[in-house]
Amino acid sequence: MDINHIKYILEIAKTGSISRASQNLFVSQPYLSSILKKFEETIGFTIFERTNKGVELTKEGLQIIQDIEKLNDLYEGIANKYQSTHSHFPSLSISARRSSYIAFAIAKMINRLQEENDNLSIKFSETTNLQVIEDVNSGNADIGIIRFYTENKNHFENQLKARYIEWKQLSSFPRVVLIAQQHPLAKKEHLELKDLEPYTEIIHGDFELDDYSEAYLWQKKINSSKKLIQVYERGSLLDFIATIEGSYTWTTATYPTILDKYNLIEKSVLPSHSECLDYIIYKAKLEKSVILRLVEEKIYETIQLFNR
């Protein structure tokens, strides 16, 4: 039994509706129904009777709900007792939204861990916000870092709440345009949206619709037939910006070494608009852990390098 699936079953029992539970959990109703079906097949009997008003617990279902509530409480208690104060993490998995400054911060954290651990295994993956959340929720990542615009704050916080994921805000950055030093707009102190009309925008092709919605609206304001290139890897995006004439990308905080390496510069765009927020996310069992504090510390140190 997957502990997350147990939480899903408990939410169905709490709401009395698969539909409402799917909304609260931010998962599709067919997916939640499939989880319930597999769970019932595993235990060998039906937990819920379907009615016109939703679902009702069967006699056997009432008993197992009481049992798995105890199991869930026991799991949380054991996790908090034995893992919250654990100070050495020879094995650690981190999932993060693509960001050069986050990558540098994680590298600094690894340097610290290498000093304190003879054996060390680190997994670091860069992906989309939704995948980061899923990685933490499923246990494939101990710690996640997500990045989103302020207008999407409620959306992402609701997703975290539904999955019993804790979070802390790490930073906020204004949104800027990243261009090559030889770009025709490089000498302008501030840019306006109309300045970008003739040029080619480069974006990460797998960014979520919710996460990218505001950028999409800005694109429509510029020109619905504008030139657009989608890439799926941060290194390729930087190579393209440095090489493709007249190209640009929307970004927030680029590590200074990266700017120097690729001969890139950042330009503000007027009028200014929403900021980008970075959250570190984790399960409650890591609330008091040394490793969580170390990741936060190194990210905060790296943020100090940005003079914005």
From TrEMBL:
<dbReference type="Pfam" id="PF03466">
    <property type="entry name" value="LysR_substrate"/>
</dbReference>
<dbReference type="InterPro" id="IPR036390">
    <property type="entry name" value="WH_DNA-bd_sf"/>
</dbReference>
<protein>
    <submittedName>
        <fullName>DNA-binding transcriptional regulator, LysR family</fullName>
    </submittedName>
</protein>
<dbReference type="Pfam" id="PF00126">
    <property type="entry name" value="HTH_1"/>
</dbReference>
<dbReference type="InterPro" id="IPR000847">
    <property type="entry name" value="LysR_HTH_N"/>
</dbReference>
<keyword id="KW-0805">Transcription regulation</keyword>
<dbReference type="GO" id="GO:0003677">
    <property type="term" value="F:DNA binding"/>
</dbReference>
<feature type="domain" description="HTH lysR-type">
    <location>
        <begin position="1"/>
        <end position="58"/>
    </location>
</feature>
<comment type="similarity">
    <text>Belongs to the LysR transcriptional regulatory family.</text>
</comment>
<dbReference type="GO" id="GO:0003700">
    <property type="term" value="F:DNA-binding transcription factor activity"/>
</dbReference>
<dbReference type="InterPro" id="IPR005119">
    <property type="entry name" value="LysR_subst-bd"/>
</dbReference>
<dbReference type="InterPro" id="IPR036388">
    <property type="entry name" value="WH-like_DNA-bd_sf"/>
</dbReference>
<keyword id="KW-0238">DNA-binding</keyword>
<keyword id="KW-0804">Transcription</keyword>
